Amino acid sequence: MSTADLMRSLPDPILVVGGYGYRNVGDEAILAGLLAAIGSGRALTVVSRAPAETTATDGVRSIPIWRALPELLRHRSVVIGGGGILGGDMGALGRLIPYFGLAASVLGRPIALVGVDIERSSSGLRTDALRRLVRRAAVVAVRDTQSAELVGAFGAAATVVEDLSADVPSSARSVGEALLRDAGLDPSRPIVGLCLTAVNPRLSHALEEAVAGLLDRMPEVQFCFIPMSQHPFIASHNDLVLGRNLRARASRLVIIEGVHDPSAMLAVFECLAAAICMRYHSLLFAERAGIPVLPIPYAPKCDRWLARRGLAAIPPTADALRQAVASALGERLAWTA
Fold first, then answer.
1. Per-residue pLDDT reduced to its tens digit, 40-87
2. Are the C-beta atoms of residues 31 and 20 closer than 8 Å to each other?
3. CATH number of the domain enclosing 107
4. Which domain CATH number covers 234?
């Protein structure tokens, strides 16, 4: 059953809750796919950290987070949409989402969990809240079999669906080429994307050393840092901070500056020769673009994605990355000279 089929039973107006408005390319792609699945002509409201940006980008009514609870009174159903929103690496507000869903259920609102990961939490209280939420939900659609198995262990049933970003179209290739040229790169020569994050502190120091060493060892290759998240408040979730730190160590590193919609970012991936990927949606975008994926997973959801495809993680060392890039470029490495 498609995500769209699952959504048809939900009564309007629908309140859509997720990690939206934080300038995260993956979450914004999830929202775009979710809105497409809900369908045009439906009455809905999106809860967003940046309502004006969400309205401008997606053409929907949007409200700030503090209004979410009052809005339950005027909405007849709730959709909790997308990705790792129920995962353990969410911030304080994200960790409240299961309890928000339970509050909606107490008010008699049908709940749909769509395109999410379900993980056991180190907090027994949070795990109990997730268990009760999936049991009460009218729709549970998860994006991997491990999540579906955990839902089953919780005493409910889940449908496995594609990540909601799968239906987001790419902009024209010319859009990606223009962004790369504006950054100072030559799209006619091979470019390797760096889609990195400092969210996992255990990887951060080794990662910076590895990337600096990689650029030293491959001076003939064009490298482009692609910030998949530009969180406005938490530096470790703002990949642009990491990118600028890396550029301070290797001045020839180029960064895609500015905030761009998911379709434009997907077009950038289509212009790359390969991508070193940490963020979950960088893995998905690289796969969709048909380029070599050089993975450095930072979270269990990335590990599960790699396992389903039989891909091995690359150690965050300069030598391992240099070998992976050289293998990915193959004969094209000669073009960079």
1. 889 999 999 999 999 999 999 999 999 999 999 999 999 998 877 776
2. yes
3. 3.40.50.11720
4. 3.40.50.2000
